[in-house]
Fold this sequence. Notes:
Blueprint: H1 2-9, H2 16-24, H3 32-49, H4 51-67, H5 77-113, H6 120-123, H7 132-140, H8 142-166, H9 170-176, H10 181-222, H11 226-237, H12 240-261, E1 267-270, E2 275-280, E3 290-296, H13 297-309, E4 314-316, H14 318-327, H15 339-359
Parallel strand pairs: 1-4
Antiparallel strand pairs: 1-2, 2-3
Amino acid sequence: MAESADKDSKTEAPTQKRYSEAADKGNVPFSREITVFASTLGIYVYFVFFLPSGVAQLWDTLRGVFEKPEQWRFETGTDIVALFGRVFWESAAIVTPAFILMATFGIAASILQNLPTPVLERIAPKFSRLNPAAGFGRLFGMPGMVEFGKSLIKILVVGMVVGLSLRSEYFKSLDAMYADPDFLLKRLSSDVRTILVIILFAAAIIAIADYFWTHHHWYEELKMTKEEIKEERKQTDGDPMVKQRQRSFARDLARKRMINSVPRATLVIANPTHYAVALRYVRNEDAAPVVVAKGTDLIALKIRQVAEENGVPVFEDPPLARSMFAQVSVDSVIPPVFYKAVAELIQRIYASKNKARRVH
């Protein structure tokens, strides 16, 4: 019941991160029926192109044994072993290509579905698999029932089609039992080829159906709940609370750095309490005055306090302070529109310094 409710809550499409994590764990869609079809195709290729010549050669050997036994010596056990050895190796030469083709076609089908990737987690021993209840769940669950259904359908469909196809050949096959061995082999070869074509056709239909079922089941298993989507977004984008603290920390660092730059300023332009903009201008160093600090309310008061403590002139010009605060960012050169007003203030500073020198 809980598993059903959990599946019902998975209403969201999987994200790219979900797909990547599944692939890293080896959880990819894989149809065994495509591999079965490919192996069956390999057997058919073997039967058509390799088996006839191999059987003919083996048949010649056996015919020589049975029709001309005087050519063979059977005096000792070594003679018997030699005869059976020859028959064995010729039989192996016939069967070996079948195994090679089946393996080649099966491996190729597996690779074309998904490239092989080593996943140690899949081969690591899991004691949870020793749980009988979990084993019965896997055996009689939906995937297990689907696998059983596919196997049953294959047996029934192939059996029925083969039976119907060969029913008309029944009596001919009985007559062939008394015919020449060459004719019997040809007859048997024709019947086997018919059976293989039927099996191949049925395997192709089942493989196509299984391909779509496997991908659909895999997609449904990867679906996510709304909570999982939110949690993944938090992990990807960062927890909003953490990001807020990070932004707050960054702002504090920027304020401290800005306040520490005030003692290097040439002048501060301020609204009495709400705005303050600190400028630095050094001849032969800057093309125009640069804003080294700015702020409102408490920060503005702090800028004024630090400026006064370090002997930086503070000029109160509310319209200029507000306008410059709105248009210029920290560490930026002031635009030309402020050149004249700021130049007058800097000239006043230089004039005040020159007057102080003359007095001293």
